[in-house]
Design goal:
By secondary structure, the protein is of the alpha+beta class. It has 3 domains: 80 residues, Double Stranded RNA Binding Domain (2-Layer Sandwich); 98 residues, Orthogonal Bundle (DNA polymerase, domain 1), CATH 1.10.150.130; 189 residues, Orthogonal Bundle (hpI Integrase, Chain A), CATH 1.10.443. 48% of the residues lie in helices and 9% in strands. The chain is built from 20 helices and 7 strands. The strands form 2 sheets. It has a 4-stranded antiparallel beta sheet, with helices on one face. It has a 3-stranded antiparallel beta sheet with strand order 5-6-7. Helix 5 crosses helix 9, helix 12 runs antiparallel to helix 14 and helix 17 crosses helix 19. It is elongated.
């Protein structure tokens, strides 16, 4: 009986020519020639013959083939199809190797070239790393369902609606990336989760801003020439966002123009461009004072490594007892432009690097209104650095006498 079960030997397997050779109980060696061949297990499942490949004879030894054959015979004896069972096991293994965290990382690597600064700031992954992956990161992406997502993100619905929506958007991209990888995922799982989360009464809050009339007083209080004070002063005078200011490098400045590289600009759909900022006399004075703090060419370094953080400036204003935040100075400038100047809408928006009009209009508009913006920011700088509380109305009156700016053809 033993001989009938083990008809082949290692030498026979190696030297056999083209043909089919039985080892016993359904295990066969199928040779195409001396060098190539495979192991095949023939079994009968529910009255139907099945042939199951067990690998090349050059990769799987005779002993390994016999062990593998016995494992799958046991599956047949239990009433299951060994081929289907092997596929099921492979799917399970695949799922375990593709958790949500794994796919999220792979997805980020695939799309980061389209993100600002190659996503180095970490903002794309932030909603996931803070609110999703701690709970769902180890879940196989094929097992992810709408209830999991609902339970994870609904607590944010009435408190951090924007964060929740960003997380859902990122998850949708990741699920589609998983589908592109060939994983068995529900492509509509995020839409189903949105339906389960439902609507809320949440109203987004605007970033608190200091009223423009109070800006000169606050500016005057920034008087100790520290990195924080100087950074806030330049933020006020230029109207830029905090990121380009924090990463301001001496090489970005040429005379009285600061060119912000595209990768530091906020953009949609990866269409950021370099942005020129005209520097008023007051802004140039702040930059000159900041040079003594420079490290590796950056004018606003942190106390340890890198550059000053958003939180440094925000915490400073918080300690001053202010509800307003640094980003709000852009709102103060925009409101001042609307109330105290006759700047055309396009130029006022350009001061804040906002684009107006359609893509077609912008494609033909070949100007960034640098000279017009220079005159406006010079006036803003003069107001901020010279106005006093009791003299604000006088300053406003003097501003109203300036000849209004006109939009050039710029085509």
């Amino acid at each position: 009986m033993a001989r009938e079960l083990n008809k082949l030997s290692a030498v026979m397997v190696k030297q056999a020519i083209a043909g089919k050779y039985a080892d016993g109980l359904g295990l066969w060696l199928v040779k195409a020639d001396r060098r190539t061949g495979k192991w095949v297990l023939r079994v009968v499942v529910h009255g139907r013959r099945r042939e199951m490949g067990l690998g090349s004879f050059t990769d799987v030894s005779l002993k390994e083939a016999r062990d593998e054959a016995e494992k799958w015979r046991a599956v047949v004896r239990s009433g299951h199809d060994p081929i289907k069972e092997r596929e099921r096991q492979r799917r399970e293994q695949q799922k375990n190797l593709h958790t949500l965290a794994d796919v999220a990382d792979d997805c980020f690597e695939a799309i980061k070239a389209t993100l600002k600064g190659d996503g180095s700031a970490g903002r794309w992954m932030s909603p996931l790393t803070h609110h999703v992956l701690p709970k769902l990161g180890k879940v196989p992406v094929a097992d992810l369902d709408q209830v999991d997502i609902r339970n994870t993100l609904r607590p944010l619905r009435d408190t951090k609606r924007e964060t929740m929506e960003k997380a859902l958007g990122r998850l949708n991209i990741i699920v589609r990336h998983a589908a592109a990888l060939g994983l068995d995922v529900d492509i509509q799982v995020v839409d189903k989760a949105k339906a389960l989360i439902g609507a809320s009464q949440y109203q987004p809050k605007h970033i608190p801003a200091l009223p423009w009339r109070d800006v000169p007083t606050f500016y005057a209080s920034l008087d100790d020439a520290s990195v924080t004070h100087l950074a806030l002063r330049l933020l006020i005078l230029t109207g830029v966002r905090s990121r380009p200011l924090r990463f301001l490098h001496i090489d970005h400045i040429d005379g009285d123009v600061w060119t912000v590289p595209a990768d530091l600009m906020k953009s949609r759909k990866g269409k950021a461009e370099d942005f020129r900022v005209p520097l008023s006399p007051g802004a140039l004075a702040v930059i000159d004072k900041s040079k003594r703090h420079a490290r590796d060419g950056y004018l606003f370094p942190s106390a340890r490594t890198g550059v000053i953080s958003d939180m440094t400036m925000s915490k400073f204003m918080e300690r001053r007892g202010l509800e307003a935040r640094p980003h709000g100075f852009r709102s103060a400038l925009r409101t001042w432009l609307a109330e105290c100047t006759e700047a055309p809408h396009e130029i006022a928006e350009a001061c804040l690097a906002h684009k107006t009009g359609s893509e077609v209009v912008n494609a033909y508009r070949r100007t960034d209104y640098l000279d017009e913006r220079r005159r406006l920011l010079d006036r803003w700088g003069h107001y901020v650095t010279t106005a006093k509380d009791e003299g604000a109305s006088e300053t406003e009156a003097s501003i109203s006498n300036v000849v209004p700016l006109r939009v050039g053809a710029g085509a």
